[in-house]
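In this section we walk through a basic example: taking a raw amino acid sequence and producing a predicted 3D structure, encoded as discrete structure tokens. The instruction is simple. Fold the sequence below.
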Amino acid sequence: MKNIVVSFILVAILLSSSFSLFINVNAQLKPNAIVSPGCGDVTGYGMKLNVNGFEPNSNVGWKLVHPETQEIPTYGYFSTNSTGGFFESAYIESESGLVEGKYEIQFFDDADNDGNADPGKKEFIISMSVPCEE
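The resulting token sequence is shown next.
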């Protein structure tokens, strides 16, 4: 009987350790983003955003940044689902100041919607170009 109790306690400890390891690994997932297409036209640019790995049930801010001039022709926010992701469409209008060149789309946790990345939270940058290069 004593062996059964000891075995049960050992199994319980192993299971709880495995569960907490799974939770910690899941919380440390790096964000990722797929932007399709990865290039657009100066007259306007429609894209699909498939983003994951951010703070669950929160907000992710995004900015389109011209790396050379640091100008931000457009920006926005999306709400994340229970896994920290979203799948949305976005359209960048030519009136926003879109010019030819390489750009970065910066994604970042921004729970308070202040336009700045939350300190110590996740960020992810992906490149795109206007117009599409052949």
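Looking at the output, two observations stand out. Confidence is low (pLDDT under 50) at residues 17-26. The domain at 31-130 is CATH 2.60.40.1930 (Immunoglobulin-like). In the next section we compare this with other chains.
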